Give the backbone structure.
Amino acid sequence: MAFFEMAKTAIRSFVGKPATRRYPFVPGKVTPLSRGHVTIDVASCISCGMCMKKCPSEAICVNKDEKTWTIDRLRCIVCNSCVEVCPVHCLTMDTVYSPAVTTHSGLEVFHITYVKPEKPPKADSVDENKEQA
Ligand code: SF4
Ligand code: SF4
């Protein structure tokens, strides 16, 4: 009995349409809710580092000294966390179809223009330092 069930499924799969799309030869269906890849508006970024802290796959690196925002596309799992957490909404999820890749093309580096100044030390800690000196 199990054999006939299996044969029926095999024949149905053989003559029917494939259950999956022939990616990457056939582009995936894109809807307004599709997640493609993360893009940044470098002019709006305030280098707060929230996206880097929230990224579960450590795909983003914000370097204040070098004024860069870097993403490793092959580490990104397209979870959208960085887009949701960015306080100035300079990250967006692009829905453009990206072809499959077989080699790592390296990190994508973007140069940001504004670097958030470090917070001045609290008054209490300044007083403590004076007492110790
Ligand atoms: S992209 Fe947004 S969250 Fe990330 S460092 Fe820039 S301002 Fe902050
Ligand atoms: S979409 Fe998710 S995995 Fe990709 S860079 Fe943003 S937080 Fe990281």
In short: Strands lie at 37-40, 60-63, 68-71, 91-94, 108-111. The CA atoms of residues 59 and 112 lie 17 Å apart.
